[in-house]
Specification:
alpha+beta; 4 domains; three-stranded antiparallel sheet; 15% strand
């Protein structure tokens, strides 16, 4: 489970399985047999249905089927519903489970516009390709417009998503721009209003851009591994806070070592005169102390240079009082001022 090759292997085995099951059945085999991975749709005589069902469940002891017969001349298969008309013709409609709630990606959600337009395109494409009756197709279009409108989609989004593309009407300059090949690709976190501007800038340099979620529920809620205890974490940016009730001095640093090792280095004198600011603070202020348990881990970054940048960013944000000027490995330029929140005095 989870391997990219799994669906291919499963499909190959199911092809072998169904070939053996159909060829070894002693009675009349199904007139139609359609399969998608492990879901099948077949047409067979009623007198042979039960025997065939027993037969396919005996071919492989590890593969067992369940069956669902047609009700009122209709039978669902995946997201389609096959309807047998009185004259024997088959019509296909979109099938929705009874538990379906018509809840789609909300238009106000933090996603790129093309993803939201893609929801409209996908649902209408399914209606246009699956449904065989023109009346049912019109009903499905009205249903989708109503359901998506409740999810916040405005009228203009339907026009934009479903607008037919006519290459002949595009200016020659635009054609040339579209044919221009990208020399590189960049994947950036999606931040509404910012990522779109970056994409337009990168397009001028023939760099294709794709977006990835900045924060997901999976990142917030799913933690299959036990959390690493704070004192053994490494490659971190941390903040030490003085425990004295009347002192608000803080220190921000970074380390590739376990946090406990770096904390112990802060708390002792060195052979040279350049002992840690933490050590000098406790030495010259009686009753002041720092504790590893209350140390904040602000971020983690295994790369040396990038960790220095993050340290400089947090130093700019929190404005620690014990950091010595010039002690940062990276000096942030003034360009960062418009993107970072104002300094937080401690």
């Amino acid at each position: 489970m989870g391997s990219p090759v799994s669906p291919i292997v499963v499909n190959l085995y199911m092809e072998k399985f169904e070939k053996e099951a159909l060829n070894s059945f002693p009675g009349t085999p199904p007139a139609n047999w359609f399969r998608y991975v492990d879901d099948t749709w077949c047409r067979i005589k009623k007198t042979a249905a039960d025997k065939f069902f027993e037969h396919i469940n005996q071919v492989d002891e590890n593969i067992k089927f369940t069956q669902e017969e047609s009700q009122n001349n209709t039978l669902p298969f995946l997201d389609s519903k096959v309807i047998v008309e009185e004259d024997g013709h088959l019509n296909v409609d979109v099938y929705r489970k009874p538990t379906h709630t018509d809840q789609y990606l909300a238009f106000q959600s933090h996603h790129p516009l093309e993803q939201k337009l893609g929801v409209i395109k996908t649902l209408f494409h399914r209606a246009d390709t699956i449904i065989t009756s023109e009346e049912a197709k019109s009903n499905e279009h009205r249903h989708l417009e109503n359901a998506l409108s409740k999810c916040g989609y405005k009228r203009w989004t339907f026009h934009k998503a479903l607008k037919p593309t006519d290459e002949s009407k595009k200016p020659s300059k635009e054609k040339h721009m579209q044919k221009r090949k990208t020399t590189a690709n960049a994947t950036i976190p999606y931040i509404q209003g910012v990522s779109e501007k970056l994409r337009r800038i990168l397009q001028d340099f023939n760099i294709g851009t794709s977006f990835k979620p900045y924060s997901t529920l999976r990142q917030k809620l799913v933690h299959p591994k036990d959390r690493v205890r704070k004192h053994i974490k490494s490659d971190v940016i941390y903040r030490l806070k003085c425990e004295h009730p009347q002192c608000r001095d803080t220190y921000i640093g970074e380390t590739s070592q376990p946090l406990k090792t770096r904390y112990n280095q802060h708390c002792r004198a060195t052979a040279s005169k350049y002992s840690s600011a933490i050590y000098h603070h406790m030495k010259h202020h009686r009753g002041h102390s720092f504790r590893l348990e209350t140390t904040d881990v602000l971020d983690r970054e295994p790369r040396w240079y990038e960790r220095g940048i993050r340290e400089a960013i947090y130093e700019r944000i929190y404005n620690p009082t014990l950091n010595r000027k010039g002690g940062l490995r990276v000096e942030l330029s003034g360009t960062w001022d418009s993107t970072l929140p104002p300094p937080k005095g401690q």
